[in-house]
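G., the chain you wanted modeled:
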Amino acid sequence: MTLVKVFTDVGGEKPIVLYAKIFKKLKRNNYQIKYLSPTSASYNGKTLYNYENVIYEVDESSITEHLNTDDEEVIGFSKVEDGFVKITDSDSESEYEPSEEESDEESEDISLDESVSEYYESDED
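Predicted structure as tokens:
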């Protein structure tokens, strides 16, 4: 199924946006999702991420963006043996530059993207 960004409360000062995968679309614009979350394990010194075992039900208003992909690499994660690791600049050899349209879209959603980045921070210092 497709990846989404979900506005959620993780017990902090304010709700944040997290990545999740839709596993099932229900009636009345509700979805069953699993969040992509950091685990206590690591892979080559990087935090290992995996989809939670718990299935959550959210409504359409909680979804901030449908990413129209099921490929975690698009959101900056690489599939490894037991889950996913965050791709860092040193991992990528491409020099991707967003188009003007993509840059404009990113600047409009900066507050949401910042909360995603804060939650999925890189392990590199």
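Confidence is low (pLDDT under 50) at residues 105-111.

Shout if anything looks off.
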